[in-house]
Every structure is written in C-alpha cells, then in structure tokens.
Amino acid sequence: MVExxxxxxxxxxxxxxxxQGWLRSHLPTRETIDSYRLLRPFxxxxxxxxxxxxxxxxxxxxxxxxxxVGVIMPFMHIPLAAMLAIPARANVMIAAATTLVVxxxxxxxxxxxxxxxxxxxxxxxxxxxxxxxAAQAGGELGRMLFWAHHASGPIALGILTLSASAxxxxxxxxALLWRQRVRAKWRRRHRAVSA
Length: 195
Prior knowledge:
The protein is mainly α and about 200 residues long. Helices cover about 65% and strands about 0% of the residues.
C-alpha cells in the first residue's frame, strides 16, 4: 500500500494526500481479494491489472460504463457497474464511483429531462393524451396510473438516449482529460530536465 503523498508525482499530504490515503485504505485491492470468501471463485479474473490500475484505456471505459449503468438503473447500479467492469476491462472502482452521479437529488431532473427528450423523439404532443379519458380513469390512483402509462414510453426512450449520451460524453471527456494530464506531466518533466 502506498503511503499518502508517497506516490511519484502526487500533490503531497497537504494537497489531497490525506484524502487519497483514506480512500486507499478503505478500498479493496488486488491483493485482498482472496480474503473475501464470496470473491474467491472469481479471484483469478479479479486480479487482472486493468481492473485496478488507472491507465488511458481502463479509466475512460470505467467512466463510460458507470455513467451508462447509473442512468439506466437508478438503484443497485454500483454492483452492476462493478460486475460489468470485469469483462469490459474497466477500472472497477471508477466504474462504481461514477454511478454516484445518479443520486436522489439528480433523479427527478434526470427523469423529467428523459420525458422531454423521449416526448420530442416520439413526436408526442400535448393532444395525444386526452384529459377527459384520464378523468374517467376513476379515482386518484387510476388517474395517476393513466398518466404514468402514457408517459412511460417517452421516459424509457429518453432514459436510453440519456444513458448512451452520458456514456459517450463521459468516455470522450475522460480520455481527453487523461491525455491532457499526461501531456502536462511530460512537459513538467521535460522542463525539469532542461533546467
């Protein structure tokens, strides 16, 4: 285990090293997989380096996977993203962490946006749902179910669209940020050698 701030090129203990050390101490590692009884059958597969190391391939895959799964499934998305990261050779921790973008604060606006996007994609207009037919649905629960039934198509299509968009955008942005980070490190190293 790397001590906080002990990693080459890290910001040091005063600038995020304590947080990094706390995070590293609470996350499983490749070496501790055997200590979990339920993970032992999968231990060989779970020891693959790309599942735990951060590199230019595994990080964008993980971000894309986490955002895609998080948007489609608003619950139980962390275990699903972690399981899907294994065959995708994506970083397991980052895939699980990026699902947290979807949380109780972001779900209502996300579903409203999904409804609006799906409604636009299906070319639904306000006249499709007849308010008189909804009034005849008998009782408050009946009316609510009637409206939910008519909104389910646009919401489902909108969620799929948002998921695909978030996954694609997440992959592109994280790959670009990774590339910029590598360039900046290279420039700093090159300047240090030149000076």
